[in-house]
Specification:
By secondary structure, the chain is an all-alpha fold. Helix content is 70%, strand content 0%.
Length: 808
């Protein structure tokens, strides 16, 4: 009962493809066809499977009494399955199974309507194997002949498409040629009849066209998928003969001017070899057909034909003697298209640009681009009612036109190792500038990737300007949400900013053109506000300008001094924009180091002050090791430039740094905090030794009494050493460990190195530190090589109450 209901339901479904199938929306008939035939194929497979199962069952029970799942899985039921031989035929099938198979065909044959009967007969063709040992060629020929009785051209077209599919699946390859050839001939006969109709003659218009309200060009386009399938099946058997036969049909049936929809379906079935061998012949066939009275309506199909040929020629070009003729014939057709067909024109250009770039000179490629740019400009101006300025501002976003222009520019870009050669092509810059939205971003990413991989540097204002616009487009495509989540739609944050950073590194200016380089860096600073890597590269380039000024000849020192001052000022403004605190501190110290070498003392004071302020704000979030490393690097600069303050005195930076270290968390970082204090102690000690040089740098701060300044240096050094010792002593967890002992020995060595070894205060301090070391695990622990050095220092300090200065 269920199978009878399933058959009735299947007939109802297949009837959807019958007369008046399109209803009020015939444009959806191709989609309906694929959905319904999928169901028909499923019905055929289920019937085939059931008959095969019955043929393999040796029990005398009727098939209706056997549950399929139990039949497959129950090994103890007593019903045994006898599998058919691998290459079985109808002679191996039990008579009851054959009777069931005939019964299915009788049921289908009793369907009154022609269309559903044909579809289901085609669906059950696989079951003919149970009845006859030879392939069902005669039955297929009968069904193909019956299709001629279908009056609706759209229904008949897709019936033939389904017939072609079943021919391929049911018949062996050697028997497929004649039925497929017959199908193609019948299809073309109906196709020609529709193409030759005069739509003004209402009497001769087919009833189906009147009922559906279709124009013949729309009807032919709806038949296109079925035509393409039938042609592809014929071409798969014999591509050359299919082409020759189709061209012969074009000459005979279509009188040398076949519909372009027919040609586009034909071209899609051809391989690159066949296209290359018959290049000029195929192009002229399209050219002759495109001059018909329906030219405007056939532009889309004409473009499809040329796109297929262009893609084929890009991979396998025709013979060299035909290449220029092929290109000329194609562009004779395209020259007739107006600005309304710009999208199709760009599609053809996209298909042919690789062929032109590979097989012709730079001049021909420029002609191609200039013509496209001219048409784009004309079309955009017309779109905005002749306002060229508005047309230039409004970019092409989305759609096939933007995609084609993006593809054209990308293909040309990857043709050259040096992108300046691509940018210098006439029309290329204009086309790139017309892109907007996602198309601009995608092209920009490809351009930056090309720049990153290229061995050539970016030179010249035009090249740098184009690359900068692309980098800005990629940077701006990463929105605020993407920065927080790290996963923007379509663009990876890390990759995008890495490309922008690479671009900044690739730009090259002559050493004499510092002003232009600084202008470029200022533009980068304002454009790439979210790209930390790019901002770091920008600052590093500015620092490199200062480095060059250090090594410049003395005669040019006055000019380079001004350039270095501008670069340092730029760094001072830009560095706060860097989000990474550790990178920011590193850049600050590096800037101060080279600014000091250029004797820009006033600016160095400002840079160092900003560094101290910066690290004060972030001291709680920084690891102790990083703070210690920063203080060491800062110490190198401070030894040459104390960065005093007119209001707060000569030791303003030392005092501020000391206050900063007091705020630093000592959790798991006590020894680094102590070592940072020792670094500051060495700095103030160096102030006393270089006081004469400091006086020259800033008379107001360092021009007083030498002894008073030295005494103040000693006071600050003692305070720093005392704070270092207190930090270690107050940390009970550290004091008794090996690290605590080593820290005390290091402090003792610093005391011995900085202060008079024979003074009572020095001796007392060293003795105290030695006792603290003895109380720790430093003496008893298994020490490494570094600790061996500290251990020898410990024994010297302990055994000699007044050790010599060299010992420390």
């Amino acid at each position: 009962a269920d199978r009878v209901a399933a058959l009735k339901l299947s007939i109802k479904v297949v009837k959807l493809l019958g007369y008046n199938a399109g209803g009020k929306a015939p444009e959806f008939y191709p989609i309906l066809f694929f959905l319904v035939t999928d169901i028909a194929d499923t019905v055929g497979q289920l019937v085939y499977k059931r008959i095969k199962m019955k043929a393999e069952n040796k029990s005398e029970e009727t098939y209706d009494e056997i549950d399929e799942i139990e039949y497959r899985t129950n090994q103890n039921s007593g019903r045994k399955k006898a599998p058919l031989p691998e290459n079985w035929n109808s002679d191996d099938i039990r008579e009851s199974a054959k009777a069931t198979c005939r019964n299915w065909f009788f049921k289908v044959a009793s369907i009154r309507e022609l269309v559903p009967r044909l579809y289901l007969e085609f669906a059950l063709l696989d079951c003919m194997r149970f009845l006859r040992p030879e392939p069902p060629v005669d039955r297929l020929n009968r069904l193909i002949a019956q299709i001629k009785g279908v009056g609706d051209p759209l229904v008949a077209a897709y019936l033939r498409c389904y017939a072609a599919k079943k021919i391929v699946t049911v018949l062996p390859q050697k028997l497929q040629k004649d039925p497929l050839k017959t199908l193609l001939g019948d299809f073309i006969a109906r196709y020609v009849a529709i193409n030759d109709l005069d739509e003004s003659d209402l009497i001769n218009i087919s009833a189906a066209m009147r009922r559906l309200g279709l124009r013949k060009d729309i009807l032919l386009r709806l038949m296109h998928p079925s035509l393409a399938w039938i042609l592809s099946r014929n071409a798969k058997l014999s591509e050359s003969s299919t082409l020759e036969r189709s061209i012969q049909m074009c000459s005979n049936e279509f009188k040398g001017k076949p519909p372009l929809s027919f040609l586009s379906a034909l071209f899609e079935t051809l391989s690159e070899d066949v296209c290359a061998e018959n290049a000029l012949r195929l192009v002229r066939l399209v050219k002759d057909s495109s001059s018909s009275s329906n030219f405007e309506e056939d532009v889309r199909d004409c473009a499809k034909c040329f796109i297929v040929l262009g893609n084929a020629f890009a991979n396998l070009p025709p013979q060299e003697k035909f290449r220029l003729d092929v290109l000329m014939e194609v562009w004779k057709v395209l020259a007739k298209w107006n600005e309304d067909q710009l999208e199709h024109y760009a599609g053809v250009t996209d298909a042919f640009v690789d062929f032109v770039a590979e097989n012709f000179t730079r001049n021909q490629l420029e002609i191609l681009l200039k013509d496209l740019a001219k048409r784009v400009k004309k079309s955009r101006t017309k779109l905005f009612d002749g306002d060229e300025e508005l047309a230039a501002r409004r970019k092409i976003q989305g759609g096939n036109l933007a995609k084609n222009i993006e593809n054209i520019c990308t293909k040309i870009l990857f043709r050259f190792e040096d992108i300046s050669l691509a940018i210098s092509l006439s029309g290329f810059s204009y086309l790139v500038n017309q892109l907007g939205g996602d198309s601009k971003v995608l092209f920009s990413i490809k351009m930056l990737e090309r720049i990153k991989k290229s061995k050539h540097r970016l030179e010249g204002s035009s090249v740098i300007s184009h690359a900068f616009d692309c980098a800005k487009a990629v940077h701006d495509s990463v929105d605020a949400l993407a920065l927080r989540t790290g996963s923007p739609d379509g663009v990876d944050v890390v990759s995008a900013f890495d490309l922008v950073s690479s671009f900044v590194s690739k730009v090259h200016y002559e050493e004499s053109d510092v002003d232009a380089e600084l202008r470029f860096l200022m533009n980068c600073r304002s454009a790439f506000t979210n790209a930390d890597r790019a901002l770091i590269k920008v600052v590093q380039r500015a620092i490199s300008i200062v480095k060059r000024c250090v090594t410049t000849d003395v005669k040019k020192r006055e000019k380079t001094q001004a350039q270095a001052a501008a670069s340092v000022a730029f760094c001072q403004i830009t560095i706060p924009s860097v989000a990474d605190i550790e990178a920011r501190l590193k850049l600050i110290v590096e800037t101060a180091k080279y600014a000091t070498a250029c004797e820009l003392h006033a600016q160095v004071d400002g840079v160092i002050s900003s560094a101290i302020t910066d690290i004060e704000d972030a001291i709680e979030s920084l690891r102790a090791e990083r703070v210690h490393a920063f203080v060491l690097k800062l110490s190198e600069v401070l030894m040459d430039n104390p960065a005093g303050h007119p209001e707060y005195g000569s030791f303003y930076v030392i005092a501020t740094a000391s206050t900063m270290l007091e705020k630093m968390s000592t959790e798991d970082s006590t020894k680094y905090k102590a070592y940072a204090y020792l670094a500051l102690a060495y700095v103030v000690a160096s102030f006393a030794e270089t006081r004469g040089t400091l006086n020259k740098k800033n008379v107001e701060l360092y021009g007083g009494s030498e002894q008073a300044f030295v005494d103040e240096c000693v006071t600050w050094a003692k305070e720093m050493v005392s704070k270092a010792a207190d930090v270690v002593y107050n940390d009970d967890d550290l004091l008794s460990t090996r690290s605590g002992g080593a820290a005390n020995i290091r402090i003792a060595c610093v005391v011995l190195d900085l202060f008079k070894s024979d003074s009572r205060e020095t001796k007392k301090t060293i003795q105290t530190l030695v006792r603290r070391c003895e109380a720790s695990e430093f003496i008893t622990a298994n020490n490494n090589d570094d600790d061996d050095v500290m251990l020898r220092a410990f024994h010297i300090l302990k055994n000699k109450n007044s050790p010599k200065r060299e010992t420390g």
